[in-house]
Amino acid sequence: MSNFSAWDWKPGSRVVADLSARAADYEWREEPIASPDGESVACIVKQPDAGFTVLVNDEFWEQEFEKAWYLRHAPDGRLTCLVMSEDEWTVAVDGQPWESRFGFAWNTMFAPKSNAIGVAVQLDGQYGIAVDDQPWEQMYENANNWLLSDDGSHSAAAVQVKSLGQADIDTFAKGVFSAAIDGEAWEHNFVNVWSLAFNSDASRLAAEVRLSQYEYTIAVDGKPWEQIFQSVWAPCFNPTSGGVVAPVRMGGKWFLCEDGRKLWNTPFTQLWSQKFSPGGERLAAIAATGLGHWTVVVDGQPWEQSFNGVVTDLTFSPNGRSLACMGKDDNAWWVMVDGQRWCGGYERAFAPQFSPDGKHCAVRLERGGRYSLCVDGKVYSEDFDMLWDPTFGPESDRILIRAIKDGKYLRRVASLGDILG
């Protein structure tokens, strides 16, 4: 977990690294990534007549690898990379590889409430998950829809529990997939399993399941709902009631259900990405109220504003009082907060970031190859070659800006007053 209150929040700007300083020491580099606290910038580099390693600020990791990819920071700031040595893959954390080796590894996962690191792996033609250097004891010939619980105590995946011969339609139709937690599969099999979700303490698991060619429902801890639907989307747990909430399709329309019963009676053309506020008091989802009319629905009531393209990145403020998303109209992106549009006409928009007190919202945007910062509807006076998601300080009065400009990586702490004027 990241203790962001301990970061340097003194206002000011400084150059952390000149990205061209070590250019003579490598053949090429991949796209850089900034650490959560802004104190470092890293990238995978190909060394001359040698393998790959990682450059952090002006220093290389000591070890080099045959291949390296998927550079990511854990929430606590540790830097992870998937690396290959002697034709075997593993995870390197701050330059130190795990002891376990795999035929392949991908999709690094992090537990935001702990320091756990998980990764999808293939070992001897079998698939599963490894968490903190410990792979599942039971692996499967097919696994997907990987999931690591928020506290890192459990991992899960949709797994194939029965083998199939070529064109073995009969066995497939009887159900060959299930869900496995820490490698142990549910007893019940399904035609398909997708989109797993843990509850808050990872004691329960829900998933989309397909019962037959045209029958879908939600399964919880291996037991399907009694109700059957034309289709379903990803479930989530209600933090207040403990029930499972999922969008379902009935009679050609989409409804939101909890434990198989309608939670919202209003039908929608499409409905997905439901999310509870941090305290569980409010429930929102992305919906289409008609063809080409995408919006946000809060507690069953759609916003008046809509988009003809798509709505993404539904985000509640920490206090649950505000809600933000990105919306696309005619190939241009907008920010929308509490039903009001901000900062429109951009080629790309990224997930909104709220302040700890929930009173402010910041978003990074891209247009014409330049990146901008929008805070509370006002665009920052300076743009950048590259920009990472902004982070508000613990008192909600400052913003950490991590950016690249003129080949230099900058760490800047700006006061909210300087940005808003």
Features:
mainly beta; 5-stranded antiparallel sheet; 421 residues
List the helices and strands and how they pair.
Layout: E1 12-18, E2 28-29, E3 33-34, E4 41-46, E5 52-56, E6 59-60, E7 67-73, E8 79-85, E9 88-93, E10 96-97, E11 104-110, E12 117-123, E13 126-131, E14 134-135, E15 143-148, E16 155-160, H1 169-174, E17 177-181, E18 184-185, E19 192-198, E20 205-210, E21 216-220, E22 223-224, E23 231-232, E24 236-237, E25 244-250, E26 253-258, E27 261-268, E28 270-276, E29 283-290, E30 293-298, E31 301-302, E32 310-316, E33 323-329, E34 332-337, E35 340-346, E36 348-349, E37 353-354, E38 361-367, E39 370-375, E40 378-379, E41 386-387, E42 391-392, E43 398-405, E44 408-415, H2 416-420
Antiparallel strand pairs: 1-44, 2-4, 3-4, 4-5, 5-6, 7-8, 8-9, 9-10, 11-12, 12-13, 13-14, 15-16, 16-17, 17-18, 19-20, 20-21, 21-22, 23-25, 24-25, 25-26, 26-27, 28-29, 29-30, 30-31, 32-33, 33-34, 34-35, 36-38, 37-38, 38-39, 39-40, 41-43, 42-43, 43-44
